[in-house]
From TrEMBL:
UniProt xrefs under InterPro entries: Nucleotide-diphossugar_trans
Matching Gene3D superfamilies: Spore Coat Polysaccharide Biosynthesis Protein SpsA, Chain A
GO molecular function, one term: transferase activity
Keywords, alphabetical: Transferase
SUPFAM superfamilies recorded: Nucleotide-diphospho-sugar transferases
Species annotation: Primorskyibacter flagellatus
Name of the protein in question: Glycosyl transferase
Phylogenetic placement of the source organism: Bacteria, Pseudomonadati, Pseudomonadota, Alphaproteobacteria, Rhodobacterales
Length: 406
């Protein structure tokens, strides 16, 4: 049975295994009559060919409380878009597949580029941002959930537990962040969360001192999870990073815009496994190496915006302190794994920590060379202010694609 520990910074809602999914679902159906719930699924076309997404759709088909499902489809040509429409047609709920690479959507993107408001690069952040804009233009949802399409261990209970805190009108939460144990294949997974984010936050606190923002991030048991639920009222002012710092960026926005009592984390699964990224030790432009740099930059930028002064000496000290903290945590992870009959490759973990230490310096170098870099996608409020017909035209473009490529 799970513990019931509260860290005092944000509320932690545990799964004490005392309530069934059916009971939660019945209550959510009742709430959904007055508080409409939508789901965003950012998807690469390649995920339609994987083993995770068919099971996700089978589970979602049993969910009765969803008002709409929005699928953002990336890296697809016309034939693949047509196939995706058929693939997602098993969903009984109102759903739409947004073909992000269609000629009409490219025209929408060109308008954004002309205004200087287009996302800086393709990826999950851009996909999620576009789906949020679509939902805001629909103007008929009160809660939106987001989760990935590569979850190998997906069950409908994950979604029910994720949305419940922000759907229940008796709760104060406007953002719920999912957490779980990253265990699969007889191993403890989640290297970036375990071997980068946790020791980096410990090191930052030792090097630059107490910061409320650091304590806020440290309160999350799995800060890099891709599962969020949010009230739609906060989405129009949400600044989403276009790089791999998406999850940290959303938490940073929650910290900036909301009181701590409006944010919670909720246990959504006993075990969780999904597609694993390569470490890419020899290529800092991809894989976990790229991800680690982007995450570090996101944290450094936020701390700098709140008045922290960084220089080369600070980053050198931070690298050394991080590495020592990572090795200390590795000992704890190893012992935890052994006690639970799981494996941890200590040599591989130490090599990972060495790479992340180098990437902390690389992220610091990039930050110092370009401290004004802002890889955030503009908020939808700003887009609407610059072009008040663009969101409506996006709805028309999606509808036209659905009509012409059926």
């Amino acid at each position: 049975m799970a513990d019931f520990h509260q860290n005092g910074n944000i509320a932690t809602l545990h799964n004490l295994r005392t309530r069934s999914t059916e009971d939660l679902t019945h209550e959510l159906v009742s709430y959904s009559t007055s508080r409409k719930i939508s789901l965003i699924l950012p998807s690469l076309y390649s995920e339609l060919e994987g083993e995770a997404l068919p099971n996700i759709l089978n589970e979602l088909a049993q969910v009765p409380y969803l008002h709409r499902i929005v699928i953002g489809l990336d890296r697809a040509d016309e034939q693949q878009y047509r196939h995706a429409r058929e693939f997602f047609s098993v969903l009984p709920q109102n759903h739409v597949v947004i073909w992000n690479d269609s000629p009409r959507m490219k025209e929408i993107e060109a308008r954004l580029q002309a205004l200087g408001l287009a996302p800086a690069e393709p990826g999950k952040g851009k996909n999620v941002w576009g789906c949020i804009g679509f939902l805001l233009a629909c103007a008929d949802s009160d809660v939106v959930a987001i989760h990935d399409c590569d979850i190998l261990t997906y069950e409908k209970d994950l979604l029910a537990r994720l949305v419940y805190p922000v759907v229940n009108p008796n709760f104060p939460y406007q953002v719920a962040k999912g957490y779980y144990a990253r265990v699969g294949g007889g191993k403890i997974n989640g290297r970036v969360a375990r071997m980068l984010v946790s020791p980096l936050l410990i090191a930052l606190k030792r090097v630059i001192g107490d910061r409320d923002y650091i304590d806020f991030l440290r309160a999350f048991r799995y800060s890099l999870s891709g599962e969020f639920a949010m009230r739609t009222s906060i989405l129009a002012d949400l600044r989403i990073p276009s790089d791999w710092g998406l999850e940290i960026g959303v938490l940073s926005e929650a910290w900036r815009n909301l009181a701590p009592k409006a944010v919670c984390q909720v246990e959504v699964a006993d075990h969780y496994d999904h597609k694993h990224q390569d470490l890419s030790a020899d290529d800092k432009s991809t894989g976990l190496s790229r991800m680690s740099i982007d995450i570090c930059k996101a944290i450094f930028r936020k701390l700098a915006a709140d008045g922290t002064v960084f220089n080369e000496e600070v980053f050198r000290t931070l690298k050394a302190t991080y590495y020592r903290s990572a090795l200390d945590l590795l000992e704890a992870y190893y012992n935890d794994a052994m006690m639970n009959g799981l494996a941890v490759d200590r040599h591989r973990e130490e090599k990972t920590a060495e790479l992340f230490a180098e990437n902390i310096m690389e992220a610091g170098r990039i930050f110092l060379e370009n401290p004004s870099e802002t890889p955030f996608i503009p908020t939808w409020n700003r887009v609407h202010s610059a072009d008040n017909s663009l969101m409506t035209d996006m709805l028309k473009a999606v509808a036209a694609d659905l009509r012409d490529y059926s």
